[in-house]
Inverse folding.
C-alpha cells in the first residue's frame, strides 16, 4: 500500500523541522531564546479559566456544529466595534483559525483550482492547499518594499481561469506588514473584476502599531459576498491552546455549505467555547497594555536589526513578526549554526529561516522570521546574541 | 464566484436536517424523546473537569502538534490492556475521531481514489471522503443478516485498482454489529492480498454485550503496518464535547506523514488533553456499570421492536445503536409524521431515518437508526410511543 501523493508531497513545517537542533542545544545545557514561534508569552485573561472552572454540566456534551450561540453572539458584538455587521447564520466557530482556513479552501476550490497568495506567507496556507489538491500561485513581495503588494498589473497577470480566491493575512504573518487602504481596495477591485473570493486572515487585527489606520476586508461593502474572514482567539487573547477560531461571511450560501463540513466533524470543544465567549468581553484596557508592550518590542527588534551591518529590515507595523534579510548565504544553515556552534555565556537564539514561507523556489534563502514574543529584557539579550552571532559567522 | 463542486455535492447530515421538525414540535409544547443522536446521557467521569479545574498555567499555550506526551502515554497504557503495543511515535492526538478519520483518508487516498465501506455506515465517512474528492464504494450489509459482512467473494468483487482502504466501524455505528473474529480475519486477508489499508474505527470498543469476544484490527499482527486505528474519548467516557480523538498505527511512516497535517493545524486544545489524560485512568468499575446499563437498554429496545408487528431487528451486540426495518414505505416521512402529527399525552419520539447511512441509492428507505441514549424509564416510554405511532400510521 502507498501513501497518497498529496500527503507525501506536502511541505514539512519549516519551523518545526529545526526543533531537534534546539532540543540538542538544550540537552547540552544551553539556554535557547525562542524567536522562531508565534507563541506569545502574554498571560491569557483570567476570565477564560474562570468561566471554564465555573462550568457545571455533568455531561460534557456535543455543542452545535456551527458553534455555541453565545460565542457567535459575542463575536457579532466584537465585529460591531469594527463597523462590521454579521448575523448568527453568517458565522461559524472552528477548531482554530486553521480549520477555518482549511474549510474555506475546500469550499471555494476544487482539486486543481488555484489560490493567489502574497509571499512570504504563513506556511500552512500551502500545507492545507496541497492536502486538498489546490495549487498556490505566489504574489512576490519584497523586503525592500516592507513586503507591501506589487502593482495591480503584476497581480492581475497572475490571475488564471482556475484562480478562485486571493488569500491574505493582514496584519501579515510572517512579515508584520499592514496593508494600506489603497492596497485593500486594489485587491477588492481585482476580486470583483475577476470574480474571486477573498479569504482574509485577520487574526492579528488588533496588533497594529504607530497609530496606523486599519482596513478590514469586512469594511468593503461592494465585495461583502466575496469576503471570508478568518479569525481566532489565539493571538488576540494569547489563548493559542484554546483552538477557537471562526469564519465570518455575508455570503450566507457559503456559510450554509461550510456548515456541512462543520457537521461532519460534529462540533468544536464545548468548554473552550465557554472560555472563548468570556474572552470576547475582555476590556479594551487589556489591548492597550498588550499593544503598547508589543510596539515597544517591535521597536527593540527593528532598531537592533538596523544596528547590525548588512541586515535589511523595513519597520514592520503589525502582528508580532518581522522578516529580516541577513548578510548570510543560507539562513537555515545560520540558524542551525547558532544552535549547534554558538553561544554567549551558554545562551543562544533560535530564529525561523524564511525560505519555507516562500512558494517561489530560491526566494527568502537569506531571510529569517523573528517573532517578538519575549519580554523586553530577554528580547534585548536575544538580539544582542544574534548580533554577536552574525559577527562571528561572517568571520568563519 | 462559485463554490466548489466538492462542497456543494456533499451530503447534508441526514440526522441534522430533520432538526427543524423537532424544534417545531417542542415549540408546540410537545416533549420529544431523542433516539436520533448518539449523545449519551451518562455522566462524564468527574476526573475530567477536576483535572481541568486544577490546571494552573497562566498562558493557555499551544500543545505539541502530535499531542501531549502524557495523553499519548495514557493511550499506550490503555491499548496494552487489549494486547496492543504502541510507541510514542505511533500515536497522534486529533480533534475527535472525526479529524482522525479525515486525516487518515487524506493520507491513504488521492483525489479519485476509492474507499470500500460496509453500508449502512456512519454518514461522515461519506462526507469527509467527498470533501477531499475520494470515492466511496459500499459493501452492502442487510438487516436480515444482522448487518454482518457478506462473503469474501462479494467483497473481493468490489475491489478496484484505485481502492486504497477498507473503512470499518466495529462495533458498528449505525448498526450495533460486532464483527466476528472470522470477519476481521477475512478483511485482514483481503487487505494483505490487495495491498490495502484498513481504517478501523473502534470508538465503541468497550460497548460489546452478551460477553461476546471482541477482535480489534490492532490484534492482527500480519497486517499491523496496514492498520490505522481511529479512536476517541467521546463515547467511551461520555465526553463527546471534549473532541479528543487519536490515530494509532504501527506504520511509523504513515504517522510521520499525518504529523504534517497535524502541524498544519498546530495542535489540539491544551485543556481538553489534560482532561482526557485523566479519563484514561477511569477505573474498570465505571465500564462495568456503563456496559450493564447499555446492555439493559439494548434488551429493552430489541424486545420492544420485536414486539411490534412487521418490524425486523436482529439483536445487535455492540455500540448503542440499532437499525430496524419498519413496516413503512418511507421512514423519513414516518419520522416527520411522528414529530408533526403524533403524540401520546403530548410526548413523541425522534428517530434517524437510515437511508442517509447507505451509499447505494434506494436502500434503507424503510429503516431507522435508534440510539439508546436515554435512561430505562424514558426509553420504555419512547418505545411505547413508537409502537403506538406505528399502529396509527398503518391505519392512515
Amino acid at each position: 500500500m502507498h501513501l497518497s501523493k498529496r500527503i507525501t508531497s506536502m511541505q514539512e513545517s519549516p519551523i518545526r523541522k529545526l526543533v531537534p537542533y534546539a532540543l540538542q542545544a538544550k540537552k547540552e545545557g544551553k539556554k535557547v531564546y525562542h524567536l522562531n514561534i508565534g507563541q506569545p508569552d502574554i498571560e491569557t485573561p483570567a476570565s477564560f479559566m474562570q468561566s471554564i472552572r465555573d462550568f457545571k454540566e455533568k455531561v460534557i456534551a456535543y455543542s452545535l456544529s456551527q458553534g455555541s450561540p453565545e460565542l457567535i453572539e459575542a463575536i457579532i458584538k466584537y465585529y460591531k466595534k469594527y463597523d462590521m455587521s454579521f448575523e448568527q447564520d453568517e458565522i461559524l466557530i472552528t477548531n482554530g483559525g486553521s480549520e477555518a482556513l482549511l474549510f474555506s479552501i475546500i469550499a471555494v476550490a476544487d482539486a486543481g483550482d488555484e489560490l493567489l497568495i502574497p509571499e512570504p506567507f504563513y506556511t500552512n496556507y500551502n500545507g492545507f492547499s496541497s492536502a486538498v489538491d489546490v495549487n498556490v500561485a505566489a504574489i512576490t513581495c519584497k523586503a525592500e518594499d516592507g513586503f507591501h503588494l506589487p502593482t495591480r498589473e503584476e497581480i492581475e497577470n497572475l490571475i488564471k481561469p482556475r484562480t478562485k480566491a486571493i488569500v491574505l493575512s493582514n496584519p501579515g504573518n510572517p512579515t508584520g506588514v499592514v496593508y494600506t487602504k489603497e492596497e485593500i481596495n486594489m485587491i477588492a477591485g481585482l476580486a470583483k473584476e475577476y470574480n474571486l473570493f477573498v479569504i482574509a486572515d485577520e487574526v492579528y487585527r488588533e496588533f497594529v502599531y504607530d497609530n496606523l489606520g486599519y482596513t478590514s476586508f469586512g469594511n468593503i461593502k461592494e465585495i461583502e459576498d466575496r469576503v471570508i474572514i478568518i479569525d481566532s482567539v489565539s493571538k488576540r487573547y494569547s489563548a493559542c491552546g484554546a483552538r477557537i477560531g471562526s469564519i465570518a461571511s455575508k455570503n450566507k450560501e457559503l456559510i450554509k455549505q461550510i456548515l456541512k463540513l462543520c457537521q461532519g466533524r460534529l462540533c468544536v470543544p464545548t468548554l473552550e467555547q465557554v472560555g472563548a465567549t468570556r474572552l470576547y468581553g475582555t476590556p479594551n484596557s487589556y489591548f492597550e497594555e498588550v499593544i503598547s508592550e508589543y510596539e515597544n518590542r517591535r521597536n527593540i527588534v527593528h532598531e537592533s536589526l538596523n544596528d547590525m551591518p548588512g541586515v535589511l529590515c523595513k519597520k514592520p507595523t503589525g502582528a508580532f513578526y518581522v522578516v529580516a534579510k541577513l548578510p548570510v548565504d543560507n539562513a537555515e544553515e545560520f540558524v542551525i549554526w547558532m544552535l549547534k556552534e554558538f553561544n554567549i555565556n551558554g545562551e543562544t537564539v533560535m530564529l525561523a529561516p524564511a525560505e519555507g514561507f516562500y512558494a517561489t523556489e530560491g526566494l527568502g534563502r537569506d531571510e529569517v522570521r523573528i517573532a517578538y514574543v519575549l519580554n523586553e529584557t530577554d528580547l534585548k539579550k536575544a538580539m544582542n546574541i544574534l548580533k554577536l552571532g552574525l559577527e562571528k559567522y561572517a568571520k568563519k
Observations:
- Chain B touches chain A through 77 residues (CB under 8 Å).
- The radius of gyration of chain B is 21 Å.
